[in-house]
Amino acid sequence: MRISAHDLAWSVGGISIVRDISLEIASGEFIGIIGPNGSGKSTLLSMLAGLRRPDGGAVTIDDVALATLSRRALAQKLAFVEQQAETTERMTARQVVELGRTPYLGPLSPWAAHDDAMVRNALENVDMADKAGRFWHSLSGGERQRLHIARALAQEPRLLLLDEPTNHLDIGHQIGLLDLVRRQGLTVIAALHDLNHAAMFCDRIAVLDRGRLVAIGTPADVLTPDCIRAVFGVEAAVSADEVGRCHIRFLPPSHPIKDRHDNQNRFPDDSRLPAAERSGAGRDLRGEDAQSWGEGNDGVRARLSRT
Amino acid sequence: MNRTLTRYAVPGAAFAALGIVVLALMAGAAIGETAIPFDVVAKTVANRLFGAAYALEPLDEGIVWSYRLSRAVVAACCGAALALSGTVLQALLRNPLADPYILGISAGASTGAVAVAILGIGAGLFTLPAGAFIGALVAFALVTLLAARAGRGNSAIILAGIAGSQLFNAMTSFIVTKAANAEQARGIMFWLLGNLSGIRWPDVWLALPAMLAGLGVCLWYARALDAFAFGAESAAALGIPVRRVYVVLIGTCAMMTAAMVSLVGSIGFIGLVIPHAARMLVGVRHGLLLPVAALVGAVFMIGADILSRIVVPGQVLPIGVITALFGAPAFALLLGQKGARP
Prior knowledge:
Chain A is α/β, with parallel strands linked by helices. Chain A contains 12 helices and 12 strands. In chain A, 40% of the residues lie in helices and 23% in strands. In chain A, the strands form 3 sheets. A 6-stranded mixed sheet of chain A has the order 6-7-8-3-9-10, with helices on both faces. Chain A has a 4-stranded antiparallel sheet with strand order 2-1-4-5, covered by helices on one side. Classes of the chains: A alpha/beta, B mainly alpha.
């Protein structure tokens, strides 16, 4: 399913949150949206999902304007997974996934065998079939997020929108979850925090900064040290592995390293140190510390000059 | 799931529920200051409804038909309506403490009813229940506005509800003190605590349609209510027209609450405690939860009415006293349980 956005804008209280965003996403593409906190990722996603009506511009799905579709028709085409949605209800894992059938059920159209099959498939797909009877509050963060994906899959969508789906998960679950999403073969738009994950899973990456789309392209095109510095204010070294996938190493900010060097000479006169620090052990420790940092710094410089 | 089983499960369960309600109604008609045997109750109903010609003591027949049965039916409707309102509000607001009493809807309905009854506002145009309905809607609007200004968060709406309740109760007292004569004032004060004493058959024709219509609307939106489990945004993403569901369901709750308040005064704890009890019995699916909550509410209210008539011999306690005596400890248990949950 093809989705495009034209000149999207949204503001609140006179402050522009998102503006002039145009995107064209082809069927089956995995698009990552990256950007610092408050850059408008969530706002953009909720407009693409039809949950927020843009102040300006429009979203179309296969050339049909989103605004002309009913909520229900939309929910049969696209599924949206929020950041860490929680419930206090005593729901089982299966009941959570069954919610995904809501767009197909009405007051007079009862639950059918097909609905059961879809729920079972979705649970198996995310490897939660054995825990279908467990209560929500007894599940781990990773399991809950997998259930949200399963719930979204039970909607039989052709487009999946994910808002920072891997927050609060450990690294194994983060990669596992994104891999799970990738394997579905759906059109995916995901706001992601981790640039390496974006590089690993996305066909293209859109970079947002202060509500504007500043770059869009393949990971190798977009994730350059210059772009990362400009948008995130972080120094990074980017290298490509043998299959051309880029890998980003973030470099420590330069000023703290300088401070550590200064530390060596901060107390030239031992008498100004507390008694404990004046002991040999204390001095040795400081010496080791400074040495290792010095090495680290040289290493960074070497890497910087290489890139 | 076995499909033949489910085909018979729904009518079977509905039949069982009806049986329970009928039993409770008969108990409500039989038990009282003078105990009347079940068979007399049954014969009275047969005489009145199906034109049977059983010979009965006219006094017994009169008590059963004119006083106790109409009263029991209204009590059942009231319990069901308040339990339904509580269930719906708890789901929509995702707040286990939401109920028409705590959110000030009952207090607003009281003020509306009193304004019509005493001040004669819109006399001829508004009936008492219509005044109560407008009062209920105004109260809920005020409470949600206040909560929105206080910031989101689960406790904001409850705090706003408490403030709203106090405000509307004060307004009711003000109207009563300023404008009512002594006799009116006594009657209204008794009614405010919840009182089924004045109920006769004409009242049933308000209570029963209001409750049944409310049950119908709520059941129509049962799946929408399920979809609110993860919040309004998640419900919207599942294809629920969130704003329309809010307007229709909160309007329905206000309508049911207003109808019941205009008949029997504001009664607390039913809408708060019964939904939790029903959830413990049958789980969180609203398709089943709503009818069960209505059933439990109806039976509980009939029981509370019976108790209110027999606890103090020769005296009728306000029914709100009974529901609070049972509801408050149940509520305390509930709070403890919530706190213990991880």
